[in-house]
Design a protein that fits this description.
Length: 771
């Protein structure tokens, strides 16, 4: 049994909200002292939750505490929790007392007073733990309630259960669910939870009322599917989340050829049950199908479901990716043979080719196709989809996938107008909405990106993409909200790298020791962890971390590790002897390290010449952002310090203007980027006092890394993993100035204090409690 407090500890009384629970008298009392009826098992379950207030209690632990000598089904616990909720009147409360943490259990989140003895430490700690562990669902619930998504005209479509056991039966059931979800999503009056959040609960056996509460919807549509040859049995039921009663239910015993009729009937009856006003366009959406061919439609349900799964494979699915993408490709091919006018099938085939472009693809004779041949197949399939349905959302999204996947110089940034156009016609298209938010984040439009992710959060509150919402909040400087978002996603999807995002938030505040602890919890080694350790002053562990990061079995990685270690040890002769910049086919990674060694040793002319062999100076002026921001700062310093002041001035003018546009100073990341760029330019020009003023502001605002920026390249102009900040040639004019030494000592002393806290046993739990 997990180390939770037992339900049968010493007698104790709890006061919470308008209630008091007395364990010795086994009574739950309302505000007036009147007893509230609750079964013995319900009292035991409530008491166990109260004793573990703020913690996530698993269903297994709850059942073991309430039924210690019996083996019971989970349904018994569901009934006990439902009875507790009813006794506490949770359907009428705005503030939730008990929340469901999907896939994990329950938590009592209301503030609780122990009437039997003073326990302030326990109380404060519980609140901190609650903020950390329960935010996964409580955060989602409160945000969706604020946005009024839980109106009467809101629904989540849960994955229909496959009752037959054939290989493709579950995909068929999932595909049918998605078809219904998509049809309902196009009804203007109805708010529909997106697929990711609805499918999160698949196979978990959670009571639909709890799911509805977690998603903030008023209704749940669920059902089951059984296929037996040409026979088809589908059950569907619409459930009112508040009462738990069926608003409507239906059994369909039909043949496979009736699949269209069944889908249309379910959609229409849901709409009528929710009193939706169906306009002509709504009726068209409900009854429209991409094909009249029953066999093509049935296969499409399977193929589309498979394709959705392959777009973002979970870690456990990556090994089977090759097999699954091949099967999906074959299904789409078969569908297009059954109905050559089925536009969505051609779009799916095009996308499946793009997803498999790095895999082995064979033609009908069994010959292995080249990368270019696969791309051509994708483009050919896309052309047929465009010819048949150019304005269809599926076609337009497939076109973006094919174009970005086949043209290395294109990215999502080239399709902002397309995403916006799709969203104008269907504001509920989460795929387009997430892509648009990601694009604006890449453009450093952090505020707009965060607002777009807020829309994603309303439609798809359990989406893993909300990790990016948190990142944008970090760049905006809203660290508390960012960390709440990271924890929520991490609790739902532990395999995602949410701990690295927590580290990003901490390091941007100058809390390098907190960031280091989060990175230790990460599921894999973070490539910048060694820089954090170096900035904190632990050279030994930093170098050990660097060595551990690289794959010793990979020759290039091993050589890069040796070169990078040599740079950190200031052994520049090793780099110059190991790398020949004139070597044909020299990997760019090696060349960049060689160029950094030239810069570090103040061989500016050679550094500039090497760069201009690849890039024209005028292109840097006329086509900015050809290089990373740190490279522009480096180049400006090299030009300025080598006497090429005219070129340096032109570059500074362009980059200063660009930094204001690309890194808006009303954001945390933008302000820091502008400061770092200004510091580099002023110092390399010898404007010492102005540069020191900028540096002092940076230190005051939490700038603490002296070994490059260990968190992210976003918005950084001084980030470079191959030099210490204190050795940066751009800052040579400041090096001996007393004020610079004093400021640098402030940073070093603060970092030494943080390292000492780590060495003394600082833990994440300590951080959580302090917060």
């Amino acid at each position: 049994m997990s180390p939770h407090r037992s339900a049968s500890n010493d007698p104790i009384s709890f006061k919470f909200a308008d209630f008091t629970l007395n364990s010795s008298q086994r009574q739950l009392l309302d505000a007036s002292g009147k007893p509230i009826p609750l079964s013995s098992r319900g009292l035991d379950a409530l008491l166990f939750l109260l004793r573990n207030q703020g913690e996530v209690v698993s269903k297994q632990d709850l059942m073991a505490a309430v039924w210690p000598e019996s083996v019971v089904e989970e349904n018994n616990l569901n009934q006990a929790i439902a009875a507790i909720r009813k006794a506490l009147g949770e359907n009428q409360r705005k503030d939730k007392l008990i929340v469901t943490v999907p896939g994990r259990g329950y938590s009592f989140v209301a503030q609780t007073e122990n009437l039997s003895r003073s326990n302030k430490r326990r109380f404060l700690t519980s609140i901190a733990v609650a903020a950390t562990l329960v935010v996964a669902v409580l955060f989602v619930y409160t945000q969706r309630t604020d946005s009024n998504i839980s109106s009467e005209k809101s629904i989540a479509v849960l994955p229909f259960v496959a009752m037959s056991q054939g290989e493709e039966d579950q995909y068929f059931a999932d595909g049918l669910t998605e078809e219904l979800l998509n049809k309902l999503s196009n009804l203007e009056e109805l708010s529909v939870t997106a697929r990711t959040s609805s499918f999160f609960f698949k196979g978990q056996g959670i009571d639909v009322r709890e799911i509805g509460e977690s998603l903030g919807v008023a209704h749940i549509l669920e059902g089951s599917v059984r296929r037996d040859g040409e026979k088809l049995r589908i059950t569907a039921q619409l459930i009112d989340v508040r009462s738990g009663f069926h608003s409507w239910s239906e059994n369909y015993d039909r043949n496979m050829e009736d699949i269209f009729t069944i889908q249309d009937d379910i959609s229409n009856k849901v709409a009528r049950s929710l009193s939706l006003t169906l306009l002509e366009n709504d009726q068209i959406e409900i009854t429209s199908h991409g094909t009249d061919n029953i066999d093509a439609q049935n296969l499409y349900l399977i193929a589309a479901s498979r394709l959705r799964e392959l777009r973002t494979p979970r870690p456990a699915e990556i090994e089977s990716f090759e097999t699954n993408i091949r099967r999906t490709r074959d299904l789409f091919r078969e569908i297009t043979l059954l109905d050559s006018q089925f536009a969505a099938a051609w779009a799916g085939l095009a996308e499946s080719y793009i997803l498999s472009r790095e895999s082995e693809v064979f033609d009908e004779s069994g010959s292995n196709l080249s990368f270019r041949q696969v791309i051509e197949l994708a483009k050919s399939a896309l052309a047929k989809a465009i010819a048949l349905a150019p304005d269809d959302e599926t076609t337009r999204l497939a076109a973006i996938t094919v174009n970005t996947g086949s043209n290395g110089y294109l990215s999502q940034l080239d399709y902002l107008d397309d995403y916006e156009s799709i969203l104008e016609s269907n504001p509920n298209n989460v795929q387009a909405l997430e892509a648009l938010a990601t694009s604006h984040s890449s453009l450093s439009n952090f505020q707009l990106a965060a607002e777009l992710y807020d829309r994603v959060r309303v439609l798809d509150p359990l989406s893993p993409a909300l990790l990016m919402r948190g990142q944008n909040l970090v760049f905006l400087g809203d660290f508390a909200a960012a960390q709440a978002q990271f924890r929520q996603v991490g609790n739902l999807y532990p395999e995602l790298r949410w701990q690295q995002m927590m580290a990003l938030s901490e390091v941007q505040q100058g809390h390098l020791h907190h960031a280091e602890l989060w990175l230790r919890e990460s599921t894999d080694l973070h490539p910048r962890q060694f820089q954090m350790l170096l900035s904190l002053g632990d050279y030994g562990k930093g170098m050990a971390n660097l060595r551990a990061h690289f794959n010793a079995d990979d020759e290039l990685q091993r050589e890069l590790m040796e070169l990078e270690i040599a740079m950190w040890e200031r052994n520049y002769d090793f780099v110059f002897n190991a790398v020949d910049p004139a070597e044909p086919g020299l990997p760019m990674e090696k060349l960049k390290i060689y160029e950094d060694a030239l810069y570090r040793t103040r061989r500016f002319e050679e550094r500039i010449d090497l760069l201009f062999q690849r890039v024209e100076f005028e292109d840097l002026i006329n086509k900015p952002l050809l290089l990373a921001p740190s490279r522009y700062a480096e180049l400006h310093a090299a030009l300025q310090l080598s006497g090429k002041t005219e070129q340096a001035a032109r570059l500074a003018q362009v980059m200063t203007q660009l930094s204001r546009e690309y890194f808006p100073i009303d954001s945390h990341a933008g302000l820091r980027s502008s400061q770092e760029w200004e510091l580099s330019v002023l110092a390399s020009k010898g404007q010492v006092n102005e540069a020191l003023d900028v540096f002092e502001a940076m230190v005051a605002e939490g700038w603490r890394w002296i070994a490059g920026n260990p968190s992210t390249d976003q918005g950084s102009t001084i980030h470079n993993s191959l030099y210490w900040f204190e050795d940066n040639p751009a800052l040579d004019s400041l090096r001996d100035h007393p004020r610079f030494k004093e400021l640098l000592n402030v940073v070093k002393e603060d970092n030494a204090r943080m390292l000492a806290e780590l060495d003394s046993g600082l833990s994440l739990q300590d951080i959580i409690e302090d917060q």
